[in-house]
């Protein structure tokens, strides 16, 4: 009877490997962000399906300059978030932060507090008030081109 016994390990190695992979949450696109804003104003007597169709129609009727403005704001927010998470590796320690990532987070918080972003005519320019104080940290970090 023992000769015919088949032993199958549980869980299978493929399953346990997939569980260790960390999936990043996908950022909502511009329309979804708009839809979420509009959902806060949804009347109680309207179904979600009806209201979603209505919001979709509103989105199509929004002028292109308004959509462009939302797109610029979305890109600025995305870039700031990327700067914060640049060195973050969730598998580094049991708490999810490495020494490098906390340094990057500290740098990003400092930059966000001293950086003023001006958006005009589709151009994004960034001015830094304390360039001398932060220059050493900025040179040592990986900041995307055009952000200083």
TrEMBL record:
Gene3D superfamilies: High mobility group box domain. GO terms for cellular component: nucleus. One of its GO terms (molecular function) is DNA binding. The keyword DNA-binding applies. Keywords: DNA-binding, Nucleus. It comes from the Eukaryota. PROSITE patterns: HMG_BOX_2 (PS50118). Residues 24-89 bind DNA. Residues 24-89 form the HMG box domain. This is 8139_t:CDS:1.
């Amino acid at each position: 009877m023992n000769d015919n016994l088949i032993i199958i390990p549980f869980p299978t190695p493929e399953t346990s490997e997939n569980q260790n992979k960390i999936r990043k949450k996908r950022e909502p696109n511009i329309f979804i962000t708009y839809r979420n804003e509009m959902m806060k104003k949804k009347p109680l007597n309207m179904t979600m399906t009806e209201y979603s169709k209505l919001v979709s129609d509103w989105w199509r009727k929004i002028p292109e300059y308004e959509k462009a403005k939302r797109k610029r704001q979305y890109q600025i927010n995305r870039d700031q978030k990327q700067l914060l998470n640049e060195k973050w590796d969730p598998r580094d320690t049991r708490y999810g932060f490495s020494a490098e990532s906390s340094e990057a987070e500290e740098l990003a918080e400092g930059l966000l507090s001293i950086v003023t972003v001006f958006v005009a005519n589709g151009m994004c320019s960034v001015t830094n008030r304390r360039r001398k104080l932060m220059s050493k940290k900025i040179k040592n970090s990986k900041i995307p081109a055009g952000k200083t």
